[in-house]
Amino acid sequence: MVRSIETMMDFFLREKGELIHINGVQQLALIRDAVNKIQAVDEKIIRAATPIQTGDCVDYRDEHYLITSEIDHNGQSYRSRIRKCNFNIAFNWNGNVKWFDAIVEGKSFSIDTGSVISFPDGKIQMYLQDNADTRAIMLSQRFYNTHQPFKVEGIDRTINGIIKLSCALVFISTSDDDVENNIADRWKYEVVHTYALTIDNGTEANVMSHDILQLNCTVTDDGDPISNPSMTFSSSDPNIVSVDNQGKVMGIEAGEATITAKLTYHPNVQGAIEIKTVETMTHTYTISLTGNPTIKIGQSSSYTSHIYDNGTEVFDQSVQWSLRNQDNSTPIMGSITASTGNSATVKGGSSSGYINKYIVLTAVLTSDPTITLEKTIQLKSLF
Questions:
Q1: What span is annotated as the signal peptide, if there is one (predicted)?
Q2: How far is CA 192 from CA 99, 145, 187, in A?
Q3: Domain 195-278 part of CATH 2.60.40.1080
Q4: Beta carbons of 379 and 334 less than 8 angstroms apart
């Protein structure tokens, strides 16, 4: 009977398995809940056709899991338990910041007694994949979790494939720690960055069922474009609209989902676009604007409009440009010195009283004035 059940499970794996990623490699697997009732810990059973190991990282339905148990091999497939990583933790090595999916807990389930063991106040345990990066973690190394600083007090490598850290709450370094983004000692080694991420395809788009739309993103640091930024994409409903980490969107079923793009190492920097899967395409125009978010007084900067129809850039449309003060006061603290249907040159006013004030550049779609986009520009000192 056991062998027959195993044979049936292998059949279901081949016929009903889902595509997941194990250590970044796409694999076929069958995943089910480990228990029949809802509990605080998200634990599942994985059955894979290829070899798996304790400590392997599993990406399943936009969530990250860690294989936490021994592996059962029946000759046809491999079976184990996976547990959802509930936090993304940054460790800082003299300015080299690396992020890790981790299981962090303030209490532990005892296998021997079947009871829950609570740790003392200010103590946590953390489980990470054992790899070349995590082996560099040292005793007393600081990190942040939920905007609170901790240090490593113990390192346990007795579980093959997993590193277990015992950690204690410590004091915040107000001068060095980036508390908001959960990075210890960040400002000790780097200057403050102002990142921005824009999905160039606009704020909404349609995609045909089983068709693909490529999302294009612009990432800047203090207004300067970043080449080849590391980004992560996710869908609010992968059954309606799916997306991979190259920004390729596919319509699956009729409906609507939000696609979110994040900077991988700065996940608070993000952009979003509403994607609707449709059977018949209609025009849905959006505008994006590129150009410097600041202009020095008395100097000029160029801005370009990009017009998209259902997320794909088109070149048969144009915009009308206008400029105003952010607070709608007069006179306007700048001027549009040149413009076409797709670009404009803005010159900041020369008065020192304009320093750190804001003007707003507006682009209005010529064929549909209800579609507009504004860009706020700060006027800066020459020095």
A1: none
A2: 19, 20, 7
A3: yes
A4: yes
